[in-house]
Amino acid sequence: MEHKEMAKAYWKKNLTYVGGLLFIWFMASFGAGILFVDYLDNFTLGGFPLGFWFAQQGSMYIFVIVIAAYMVLMNKLDKEFGFDEQD
Fold it and tell me: pLDDT tens digits, the chain, 87 residues: what are they?
C-alpha cells in the first residue's frame, strides 16, 4: 500500500473512532443530562435521580472512559498501520 493511501486509511479510521466516541459522550452528557432527564429521573442511583446524576457526575465518568477507549483504539490502530512505538 502506498504511503499516501495508508495515511488516508489511517485518518479515516481515526476520524471514525473520534466520531463514535464523541457521539457516546454527547449522548451521556447532553442526552442523559438534558434531553432525557425527565425519563431518567424515574430511576435512582445512590439515592439521586439518574438524570441529575448524569448531569452532575455521570458525564465526567463517561468522558474518562471515552479517553481510555480512545487510547486503546489508537494503540491498536497504530499497531495495525505500523506506527506503534517499539523499544
Answer: 688 888 899 999 999 999 999 999 999 888 888 888 899 899 998 888 988 888 888 888 999 999 999 999 999 999 998 877 765
- The answer as to whether 60 is a domain residue is yes
Our count of domains for the chain comes to 1
Q: Is 20 within the bounds of a domain?
A: yes
Taking the C-alpha atoms of 13, 16, 21 and 23 in order, what is their torsion angle to the nearest 10 degrees? Answer: 180
Residue 87 is assigned to a structural domain of this protein = no
Structural domain range at position 12: 3-81
Torsion angle in degrees (nearest 10) through CA of 10, 16, 21, 27 = 170
Please give the model's pTM, rounded to 2 decimal places. Answer: 0.80
Classify residue 7: in a domain, yes or no. yes
